[in-house]
Design a protein that fits this description.
The structure is a homodimer.
Chain A (H helix, E strand, L loop, with lengths): L3 E8 L9 H14 L12 E5 L3 H4 L4 H6 L8 E6 L4 H14 L5 E8 L6 H9 L14 H15 L4 H15 L13 H5 L3 E3 L2 E2 L9 E9 H7 L4 E10 L14 H14 L8 E3 L5 H10 L8 H6 L11 E2 L4 H4 L7 H13 L14 E8 L4 E8 L3
Parallel strand pairs in A: 2-3, 2-4, 9-10, 9-11
Antiparallel strand pairs in A: 1-7, 1-8, 4-7, 5-6, 8-12, 11-12
């Protein structure tokens, strides 16, 4: 079976973009293409998988074809993949399978979202539909509220307080302050984050990721062509994906995500690695509590010890065994929904090629993981990467 | 490389459904499952790909996971695939690649749409966004208008008049009158169809497909498990997909679809068959002119002779070499957008197993083709099937 490598990756800065969707996608694609140092022309691309949810409030349609006609991918087989905030994590998986299938040698996976030209009402709507509608959204539960319930229950079950979440926020803002692609590039003090404006008790402003505009694009290639395209491919060593019930009340526990556990177990097994062997992980911290829970679900901390993991700054760059969200994560790098999954890969690509160039670089990074979640855990895609196959 | 078979297929009746989206999907899935005569449990399903566009006007989200949690596919990797009206044609292709990749043995592809609880305005909106927005939709061009332009130009370029389109309508209504799953199960006379209410000159009501509710579901399996699941698998012998510019003005010709030509050329080559060897084809006749053009693009008639093909009733069941739209097609069977592509496979599955049971059965059918188009040709997926591999 063919091995699959990431040979190029690029993204727009995340934030509030004045430019339109097509221009944003073209920028991300163009950056991905120009990151390929060897033999490459866009005509080599066989297929494209593009993740997006609202696509600017559904103002445009046939999204994938619309984007690719403007970015040098004319005429190829393209499709939109939509799984709420895990859209481009699944686009990546499907692109990887397309190469594994032997039907394609070079495949693009990417994502895009434009949130900041929506009214606050439409923004809330498009975020809301990513979760359960019948029991949660229509009863008034927003996403901060959903994760607030999970946080409260987590504090009840385990040795943890809101202070642990503050540590996550401080760390991710610290990492993000060194990332020129991040939406929010500034440090936040413990005191400031601890005393933030309350959004949904116990979550404050500093526990919630921003809603960002952004696009990200990665180029995957089969092993027999990857080596011609770059001397430093980043190999996809494992892929796992899973789903779960949408509504919290339908799950046996709301302090763990079964979809993350299933997806990561599969990805680790395929990669022949366990959590202790991962040098850096980009995890889906839409809210700080999500990072604490992910640290456990992905095996970086034992069950119930995610709070302590955060408190002890074990995820800070080059502090512990595994750096968590060296990019700044969704909290600081930003969260352009459909773009987030492949945006995580952009970070991993740079990190594993040792190209970050600031103290955000994880030293001697050899292995990495991305963790992309849809809704409050209804869908999840996990990928494991390595400098070696 | 593993061969892939359709081992089960089912759908709701197309039409105006009082039931909700989840119930519709569960019905289609349950029918697909119960069509499997051998060894099968839903737990055997590894992945699911589900096509939908509006999903009831985007009232619900994380669509794929929402549907699968209610249909015996709990926890597996699922995603929504969206390519306008070609959504489930691409879901089928991606499901096929998932098995080809060796990562999955049993995969579900399906689609769903609920159009009839939308207001006329929202219906027009969700149909409209499947085409070009900037140059066409926002200028007031609707889909009937788009295809009317193509029809007018076709009559100008070729030996054809509106009467040829009437023949398509009469034929598809005749086929659909024998299909208990069809939205419109009645014959239409030439006179009635010729004198229909004008929608967009030259297209009348009888040139336009209805907007339907419906769900369809097919189960694919790798060769080594397919044989345990059924004695009469239907093999996917070829798959091709392509994209094109969204706006008509961006294409060298508006009387042919380049995406159809590219996709079918690939699918035929993979199958080792040409158009003359196809016994039946389910083609994307969202408007009658689309069937005329598809007959040419797929190679059933020479360029410019699609009108004559229709006029001579060459596509009528058991009349010519290839039966076109034995199910009734989108015109009579109906068009629940995201469900249409895999709905075409439901027909092919029955036809190639010789299970239709009415005079709609194509005699001794050995090979078949499905043709699923998104927008006015911006995306297209073509699949070739056979009783033999």
């Amino acid at each position: 079976m063919v091995d699959v490598a990431v040979v190029g990756a690029g993204q727009t800065k995340y934030g509030n973009h004045p430019s339109g969707l097509k221009a944003m996608w073209a920028e991300a694609a163009s950056k991905a293409f120009s990151s390929i140092d060897g033999d490459f022309k866009p005509e080599m691309i066989d297929e494209a998988f593009i993740g997006t949810i609202a696509f600017g409030g559904a103002q445009l349609g046939n999204t994938a074809a619309l984007l690719t006609e403007h970015s040098g991918m004319d005429g190829i087989a393209v499709r939109r993949v939509e799984n709420a905030c895990a859209s481009s994590g699944f686009a990546l998986r499907d692109a990887w399978m397309a190469i594994k299938s032997g039907q394609a040698d070079v495949v693009v996976a990417g994502g895009i979202e434009k949130m900041n030209d929506l009214t606050p009402e439409r923004k809330r709507y498009w975020l809301g539909v990513s979760g359960d509608t019948e029991w949660e959204r229509l009863a008034g539960l927003t996403f901060p509220g959903t994760y607030a319930l999970m946080a409260r229950r987590y504090f009840h079950e385990h040795d943890s307080t809101h202070d642990d979440l503050v540590h996550v926020s401080v760390k991710n803002h610290h990492h993000g302050s060194m990332n020129p692609q991040a939406h929010i590039q500034k440090e936040v003090s413990f005191e400031k984050a601890a005393g933030g404006f309350m959004v949904a008790d116990p979550l404050t402003l500093y526990d919630c990721c921003p809603t960002s505009d952004g696009a990200s694009c990665v180029v995957l290639a089969a092993d027999h062509v990857a080596r011609r395209m770059t001397d430093t491919p980043v190999w996809i060593r494992g892929s796992g994906a899973a789903s779960d019930r949408l509504a919290l009340h339908d799950r046996p526990s709301i302090t763990q995500l079964k979809a993350t556990q299933t997806a990561s177990t599969k990805a680790y097994a395929m990669a022949g690695l366990d959590a202790t062997q991962i040098d850096l992980a980009e995890v889906h911290d839409c809210f700080t509590i999500a990072e604490v829970i992910a640290t456990e679900d992905l095996g970086f901390a034992p069950r119930g010890a995610g709070g302590q993991f955060a408190r002890e700054q074990q995820g800070s760059v080059n502090q512990g065994n595994t750096t968590i969200n060296a990019s700044g994560g969704l909290k600081s790098k930003g969260h352009p929904l459909g773009a987030t999954g492949t945006g995580q890969v952009v970070e991993v690509f740079k990190q594993l090629r040792h190209e970050v160039g600031t103290s955000r670089q994880v030293r001697d990074a050899e292995t990495a993981l991305t963790h992309n979640v849809g809704g409050s855990g209804a869908t999840c895609a996990v990928h494991v990467f390595g400098r070696e196959r």
